[in-house]
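Input record, target 12 of the design panel.
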């Protein structure tokens, strides 16, 4: 049976029988060959069977894997090969012997003292290599270079979370701070956009109410002027609202809705936002005398309308056509 014998290090004398086709070596408790050491990656190397042979593969570890003094990525193991991982020297045995169960003192001496027997395989010095930065962490921060657009910020958050999971899984990579920074900054940007959108929505809503109220006030003033005009004209109403200027309405601004960016030109070359109803001279309290000419004055939500009894009512845009038809009936 193939096996590994730890000859130096904190786990000296420990023997691992290679009873499975694939076994992972590392400091993670999930590794079949578990060696608890900070210099060993969570999943450091893999040992697998290739027919009668055993192959060791480095799994992108932080400090690398040495076989007989040379760093390797993948190597077929031979009986007696010395594997150095995180300061531990591990001997590979094609067949475990009873004496391998307890490490003899002279073997320890041979490993630690090359001059003890005149010659010995040189033990490779442990070379600590800097941990690599997880690429996902770099990408998460790079997403923020797209500016303050919330989609890029949201992407940075997602990639940052993935980076943290990858770093935790590997246990031997840097970049956690970059990932956290990307998540925090991305969250701030998304929060700002959400707040800004809500603030603008509230502002537009408040502004819309203010403009609607000002428009309603204009129609009330027009209602009083129409009443005076009708009294002076035997109950008739003018064909154009701007005919009320200047005798009945002296302020031209009364004819323009504050929300109208494109009023039409009425009689007397006066700008106007309000149109006369279909049958202004017909009786009936529900007959429309005047109303907003342009639906865009109030974001296409509806229009203010002045009725024969001089009350002003807000009419939702989908209902306006039907109300105008009612006014057209004799």
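The sequence produced for target 12 reads:
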């Amino acid at each position: 049976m193939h096996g590994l014998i730890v000859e130096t290090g904190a786990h000296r004398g420990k023997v691992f029988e290679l009873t499975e086709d694939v076994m992972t070596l590392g400091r993670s408790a999930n590794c079949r060959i578990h060696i608890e050491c900070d210099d060993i990656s969570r999943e450091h190397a893999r040992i697998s069977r290739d027919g009668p042979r055993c192959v060791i593969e480095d799994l992108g570890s932080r400090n690398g894997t040495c076989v007989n003094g040379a760093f390797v990525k993948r190597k077929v193991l031979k009986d007696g090969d010395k594997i150095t991982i995180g300061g531990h020297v591990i001997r590979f045995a094609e067949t475990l012997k009873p004496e391998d169960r307890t490490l003899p003192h002279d073997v320890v001496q041979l490993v630690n003292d090359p001059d003890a027997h005149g010659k010995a395989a040189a033990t490779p010095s442990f070379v600590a290599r800097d941990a690599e930065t997880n690429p996902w962490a770099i990408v998460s921060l790079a997403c923020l270079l797209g500016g303050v657009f919330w989609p890029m910020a949201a992407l940075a958050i997602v990639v940052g979370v993935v980076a943290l999971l990858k770093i935790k899984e590997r246990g031997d990579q840097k970049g956690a701070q970059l990932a956290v920074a990307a998540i925090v900054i991305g969250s701030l940007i998304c929060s700002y956009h959400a707040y800004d959108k809500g603030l603008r929505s509230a502002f537009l809503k408040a502004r819309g109410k203010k403009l609607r109220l000002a428009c309603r006030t204009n129609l009330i003033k027009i209602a009083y002027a129409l009443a005076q005009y009708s009294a002076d004209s035997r109950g008739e109403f003018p064909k154009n609202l701007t005919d009320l200027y200047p005798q009945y309405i002296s302020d031209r601004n009364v004819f323009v809705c504050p929300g109208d960016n494109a009023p039409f030109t009425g009689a007397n070359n006066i700008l106007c936002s309000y149109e006369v109803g279909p049958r202004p001279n017909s009786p009936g309290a529900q007959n429309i005398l005047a109303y907003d000419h342009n639906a865009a004055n109030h974001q296409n939500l509806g229009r203010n309308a002045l009725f024969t009894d001089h009350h002003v009512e807000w009419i939702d845009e989908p209902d306006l056509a039907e109300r105008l038809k009612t006014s057209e009936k004799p």
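The helical segments are 105-112, 135-143, 150-170, 176-232, 317-328.
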